[in-house]
Amino acid sequence: MTVDILWRSIPINEVELSLAKVLRCGQTFRWKNINNIWSFALQDRIVLLKQQEQSIEYSHIMQEDLEGKKPSHVLEKETYTFIHDYFNLNTNLDNLYKSWIKFHQPFNKKNSKISPFTEFQGIRIIRQDPWECLISFICSSNNNVKRISKMCDNLCTHFGDYINEYNGIKYYSFPTAEKLASLPNVEQSLRTLGFGYRAKYIYDTAKKLTDNDKFPGITIEKLNDLRNQDYETSHNFLLQLTGVGPKVADCICLMALDKHDVVPVDTHVYQIAVRDYKFKGKKDMKTMNKATYVAIGEFFKELYGPYAGWAQSVLFASDLTDLKNGTNILDQELSSTIVKEESPKKRVKLEA
């Protein structure tokens, strides 16, 4: 179908927000890039973004049956509000980078190499929907970005609601916890789609968040309210959910729950701490264990302060060999091949 796209602009330069870096560095897994336009499906629309030198252009395509239901200026404001909130645009990134460069200098031997905070500018932590972030990072267990992206696409294609079509690609919303918990044979369907042991984690977590009689105190409302709670409360709540360990819990705290100083630690971050920051810790910290995990997180917090998690994301991204890393990057000549490979034409058949 042909849709007239009306573009609007947010004045912000690439130093404050680089879409190519932010949307490729392993925070989020459903954005697609087609002919330099980034696209992402919400519950009622497809959001479109274009990077310019001094601005981000944005637009949307509404869900088919919602066309004309609201005035255009209301819809435009809703899309702008989503973008502003999603990318944490109230936070001045340039000022943070200047402070990070200063604190990184002592570890940068005689300034012999370019600081990652100079080379990888424009990376900010996004503010995702807590439910989507939770399920995405359950999928991240022992996984790579390309496969996580494929899993998230499959969740939407097979269990989400159809939104609309853009550039020949059909877009679906991210399925709700209620839908994943109530449909029959969801776990088996997820296994058929290649989720492996994560299928049980996703289904069990959806059940926990929607069955308040069996799991009192564990609800979607409480998950969302963790943005207003302290880190310890949030972390402990998340650990109750199937498939969520300390690192996944910290990713959700950082990327969805406004805990900006939280540093999720994995072996990659451990290597950065040891190699670039000469982290030694105690004698029992030569391997990744609970004590090492906590110590490295505290180390970066002491160094980079209330936005330590943001700083760590830059260090992590700068160490990736390829920032494209398979995150649904579709260029014009390859799009048909990749879409056919990663977006099955038929949805999984579910029994009524």
CATH overall fold name = Endonuclease III, domain 1
Helix content bin: 40-55%
User: What's the tally of helices?
Assistant: 16
CATH architecture term: Orthogonal Bundle
Strand order of the largest sheet: 1-5-4-3-2-8
Structurally, how many domains make up the residues? 1
Distance between the termini: 31 Å
CATH superfamily: Hypothetical protein, domain 2
Class by alpha and beta content = alpha+beta
Biggest pleated sheet: 6 strands, mixed
Q: Indicate the CATH class.
A: Mainly Alpha
- Low-confidence residue ranges: 325-347
Report the C-alpha radius of gyration, rounded.
21 Å
SSE string: EHEEEEHHHHHEEHHHHHHHHHEH
What is the beta-strand fraction? 5-15%
